[in-house]
Write a structure and sequence with these properties.
Layout (H helix, E strand, L loop, with lengths): L7 E2 L9 E2 L10 H12 L5 H7 L25 H10 L9 E3 L20 E5 L6 E6 L6 E5 L6 H9 L5 H4 L3 E5 L20 H15 L4 E6 L1 H12 L4 E7 L8 H16 L4 H12 L3 H4 L1 H14 L2 H12 L25 E6 L5 H10 L5 E6 L5 H4 L1 H14 L8 H19 L12 E3 L8
Parallel strand pairs: 6-7, 6-8, 8-9, 9-10, 10-11
Antiparallel strand pairs: 1-2, 3-12, 4-5, 5-7
Helix pairs in contact: 6-7, 8-12
């Protein structure tokens, strides 16, 4: 056992505490005798261990100094840090060799971007009774269909591109074909709509989905909508329940606009027409999608969307979309009190996954919608620590959506091992596409550190 500064140890066979004070009361030995015992103990006499065991009285050992005279002013360390420093001070210098770390590879993540060049979907124009709309197709058309619809200020690129290219969502993309529907004039790079153009209402935009199904020859689909797009898909599902197999609705509103929402959105539409994307409109859009205190959670993501709203959104077309959204009517659905009335149901008959974020400003709207749905075929899910769930928590949403479709029989159960293998293969494929020559950006870092904290006494 190592010797501490200015202290001594109880005999190994004793029952008292290990540490003893250097001043022992009732000890009649003088200072000279104590020094003799200490010198005899340090000098390494043959019977040193035996004397330590047989002598049950505390042995006073002087500190290690260059002179023989003990230093009675030094006290025993009162903390673990002081004792560790004292112990390390007696260690040989050979064990304190420096450690040099080399060849650390640094991987710099690519900047989050939203562009048509990064999309694996190809766009097609579908003619409707209220003008042409743009539909982006992602996947093989022979597979079951998923139709998506975006929210205010967004389109299929800014709303769904990153989510459906997420690694875990690639498992679903092997079993489905996704049709991303854009509201009139909301696609990226869209020209300004004519002044005499009458923008379709929410019900008319829901009716436009009939032309999409007819154009691609679809008989049934799974709906995936966010915000205003979720409201449009819900309207279509109410009028055409046989053509909608299931619905995943995010931040869906089932009621009419309140006075506060109506006032704010009226001002936004007015400024968009006269001044373009002002700071007030930009702040409202950020609150609408992310909620409050967004920059504290994800500063980089906020800057990406702010830049996108300022540069890639047509303000006049967005004003028309906002006007149509605040003039929406109530969905007029209600939960049936008698469970036996399935044929005359006044709610959504298909399975519904109702999702919102814990920091989203639309939580109360989703709770209202959940109270109007049939509890036997609907689920309400609130995801923590996010407002815009597709961007901030894509892993949780993809897992919930996959399990939702798995429960409906569209996806075979996947074991964790198979999911891990698929993620590895998808990641390798992504890296090959980012770095075709196989050269990753690397940097050499030389780190020299003294492993004092790694010493074990």
């Amino acid at each position: 056992m190592p010797v501490s500064l200015g202290g001594s140890y109880q005999s190994l066979t004793g029952s008292e505490d290990v540490y003893r004070s250097t001043t022992v009361s009732g000890n009649n030995t003088n200072v000279l005798d104590s020094v003799k015992k200490a010198l005899h103990f340090v000098s390494g006499s043959p019977n040193k261990d035996e004397r330590l065991i047989t002598n049950r009285q505390p042995i006073i050992v002087a500190s290690r100094t260059d002179s023989v005279k003990p230093n009675i002013n030094r006290k025993m360390p009162t903390s673990g840090v002081a004792e560790e420093a004292a112990l390390l001070g007696t260690m040989p210098s050979d064990s304190m060799d420096d450690i040099e770390l080399k060849n650390i590879q640094l991987q710099f993540p690519s900047t989050r971007s939203m562009s048509r060049d990064d999309s694996s979907a190809h766009e097609e124009t579908v003619e409707t009774d209220r003008g042409p709309i743009t539909v982006a197709v992602q996947g093989l058309k022979s597979k079951p269909a998923i139709i998506t619809y975006h929210d205010l200020g967004l389109n299929y690129i800014s709303s769904f591109q990153a989510f459906f290219n997420y690694i875990d969502m690639r498992v679903l993309m092997e079993n489905f074909c996704v049709y991303h529907v854009n509201a009139p004039g909301q696609e990226e790079g869209a020209p300004t709509l004519p002044e005499d153009y009458v923008y379709p209402t929410m019900d008319e935009m829901a009716h436009q989905l009939e032309f999409v199904l007819s154009h691609f020859g679809l008989k049934q689909f799974i709906g995936f909508g966010v915000g205003a797009g979720a409201n449009i898909l819900a309207r279509y599902a109410i009028r055409n329940p046989n053509k909608v197999a299931a619905l995943c609705l995010i931040n869906c509103v089932s009621t009419t606009a309140g006075w506060i929402e109506w006032g704010y959105q009226k001002l936004n539409a007015r400024y968009l027409r006269s001044r373009g994307m002002t700071q007030g409109v930009l702040d409202y859009l950020m609150w609408h999608h992310f909620g409050r205190n967004t920059e504290e959670r994800n500063h980089d993501l906020v800057q990406v969307y702010k830049s996108y709203f300022e540069r890639n959104v047509n303000p006049t077309n967005l004003a028309l979309f906002i006007d149509s959204y605040i003039r929406r009517t109530d969905l007029n659905i209600q939960r049936d009190t008698e469970l036996g009335k399935t044929k005359e149901s006044h709610t959504l008959n298909m399975p519904v996954l109702n999702i919102t974020g814990a920091l989203s400003p639309h939580i109360d709207d989703t709770v209202t919608l959940n109270g109007r749905l049939d509890p036997r075929n609907s689920s309400w899910m609130k995801i923590s620590d996010c407002g815009m769930v597709l961007e901030e928590q894509p892993a949780k949403v993809s897992e919930a959506f996959r399990l939702f479709l798995q429960g409906e029989g569209y996806v075979a159960p996947l074991s964790p091992v198979k999911m891990a293998q698929f993620r590895k293969a998808s990641l390798e494929e992504l890296l090959k596409s980012k770095f075709p020559n196989g050269q990753w950006p690397t940097s050499m870092i030389h780190i020299t550190e003294n492993p004092i904290s790694a010493v074990v006494c």
